[in-house]
Amino acid sequence: MRLTSKGRYAVTAILDIAIHQENGLVSVKDIAKRQNISESYLEQLLGRLRQAGLVLSPVSYTHLRAHETSLHLVCRLL
């Protein structure tokens, strides 16, 4: 499977959330800083994932519904 840049960034964000959500909610700002992704671009990507119900977002934080997330689904949404 070939990933577009958008897909690669979305998967990177999803993985970051999965790794760091054990410490509670993960902020978009922290993901952007750790992964060197523009915060505004990341918000756009996560917006689509939120609409699909894969990422929950109280204010500026995200929480991954990891048990329901697949790489194929993430890429298809973008």
Secondary-structure blueprint of this entry?
Elements: H1 5-20, E1 26-27, H2 28-35, H3 39-51, E2 55-56, E3 61-64, H4 71-77
Antiparallel strand pairs: 1-3, 2-3
Please describe the biggest sheet, giving its number of strands, its sense, and whether it closes into a barrel. 3 strands, antiparallel
Return residue spans where pLDDT drops below 50 for at least 5 consecutive residues.
none
Rounded to the nearest angstrom, the distance between the terminal CA atoms is 14 Å
How many beta strands in the DSSP annotation? Answer: 3
- Residues in β-strands, percent: 5-15%
Q: Based on helices, strands and strand pairing, what is the structural class? A: mainly alpha
Strand order of the largest sheet: 1-3-2
Average per-residue pLDDT, rounded, comes to 78
Q: What is the element string, with H for helices and E for strands?
A: HEHHEEH
- How many helices? The count is 4
Spatial shape: globular
Helical fraction equals 55-70%
Radius of gyration: 11 Å
